[in-house]
Design brief:
With 122 residues, the protein is mainly α. The chain has one domain. 83% of the residues lie in helices and 0% in strands. It has 5 helices and no strands. α1 runs antiparallel to α2, α1 packs across α3 and α2 packs antiparallel against α3. The longest helix has 25 residues. The termini are far apart. The mean pLDDT is 85.
Length: 122
């Protein structure tokens, strides 16, 4: 993929949207990032998911730092999720190439749908 000026602008806007969502909702920036990278920027499926993960790391770190400075993080509650997330990240990173992109898209869509329904019903 060639990155010209127009694509750089799209990538910057996509990152800003993802960062805003991540900051406001304590996560979820990747839910916007994946469809934007794929549909608006034109990244291919395999690179879309991997790029989203790479982008979310610093966005999550910045959001976590902002929450930590305001005393909004419970480290005792976070540690089990961090350890589980680390294990899940390793497993998914190692098996990513074996999962068909179409299956990833459908699973991602179902995850977004389930999250939306759960949020509305709460």
């Amino acid at each position: 993929m060639e990155i010209d000026g127009k694509t750089k602008l799209k990538l910057a806007v996509t990152g800003a949207v993802s960062g805003l969502l991540n900051g406001f909702f304590g996560g979820g920036g990747g839910m916007a990032l994946v469809p934007l990278l794929r549909g608006w920027v034109g990244l291919e499926d395999g690179k879309t998911f991997a790029t989203s993960v790479a982008v979310m790391l610093p966005l999550c770190a910045v959001s976590a730092a902002a929450y930590a400075l305001r005393g909004g993080i419970s480290l005792p509650a976070a540690w089990p999720y961090l350890l589980g997330g680390l294990a899940g990240g390793i497993v998914s990173g190692l098996s990513f190439k074996r999962v068909p992109p179409g299956l990833l898209r459908r699973a991602f869509a179902l995850l977004i749908l389930a999250g939306g329904v759960r949020s509305v019903l709460r």
